Amino acid sequence: MTSTHNRVAVLHGVNFDVLERRDPEIYGGLSLGELETRIQRAARGLGLEAIFFQTNSEGEFAEYLHRAPELADSIVINAGAWTHYSRAIADALELTGLPAVEVHLSDVDSRQDWRRVSVFDGLVLAKVSGKGADGYDEALAALARQLGVSDPG
Ligand code: DQA
Predict the structure, then answer these.
(1) Which of 44, 54, 68, 109 has its CB 3.0 to 4.6 Å from that of 12, i.e. a possible disulfide?
(2) At 123, phi and psi to the nearest 5?
(3) Of 152, 124, 118, 117, which is closest to residue 138 (Cα–Cα)?
(4) E-assigned strands of 6-136?
(5) Contact, 125 vs 96, CB < 8 A?
C-alpha cells in the first residue's frame, strides 16, 4: 500500500532561479532544475514524493507556506538570504505545524558572520549546511524517519 503521509515540499527562496549563475565554488554549479531532479530521485528512493516551489517574492513564499499543510506532510526549506533576517518567513513556517529541515548548499557557518544567524532556529528538526546537493539527501532521510516512511527498495 502506498503511504499517503509521504509528501515533502521542497522550497527554495530568493535567487535560486538563477542557481547555475551563482559562484560554482560556493554553490556547486547546478541549475535549480538539475538540483530538483536529483532531489526527486533521492526522495523516491526513500519512499517520499517531493513537490517543488521557488520564488523571489517573500510574500509569495509566505503564502505558499500558508497552503503547505494542504499540499505536503513535511518541508525542506532553503530560503536563501531570507534565512538570515525574515521573521515573517519564520512565522509562516511555524504556522504550517509541519516537520521541517533547513538546508544550505554552502557552509553558512564558515562564511560572513551574518550568515550564521538563522530565523529558523528552534523551528526545524535539523539544519544541514555545507554539504552541497548531498545535504538534501540528509534532510530527506531525517524527514522520512520523522514521518515513519520506510525505504521502498
Ligand atoms: C544559501 C546560503 C545563504 O546564506 C545565501 O544567501 C543563499 C544560499 C545556501 O544554500 O548556501 O542564497 O541558502
Answers:
(1) 54
(2) -105, -20
(3) 124
(4) 7-12, 49-54, 74-78, 100-104, 126-129
(5) no
Q: Which three cell numbers stand for residue 71?
A: 499540499
- Ligand 1, residues 15, 54, 103, 104: which to mutate, most atoms within 8 A of Cβ? 104
- Check: CB of residue 124 under 8 Å from CB of residue 98: no
Probe residue for ligand 1, chosen from 89, 105, 117 as the CB with the greatest number of ligand atoms within 8 Å:
105
Task: Give the integer Cα–Cα distance in Å for 104 and 147.
Answer: 22
Q: Report the SS3 class of residue 66.
A: helix
Backbone Cα Rg of the chain: 14
What letter represents residue 14's amino acid?
A: V
**Is the per-residue pLDDT at 67 higher than 70?**
yes
Query: pLDDT tens for residues 114-145?
Result: 999 999 999 999 999 999 999 999 999 999 99
Active site residues: 27, 104
Contact call for residues 133 and 139 (beta carbons, < 8 A): no
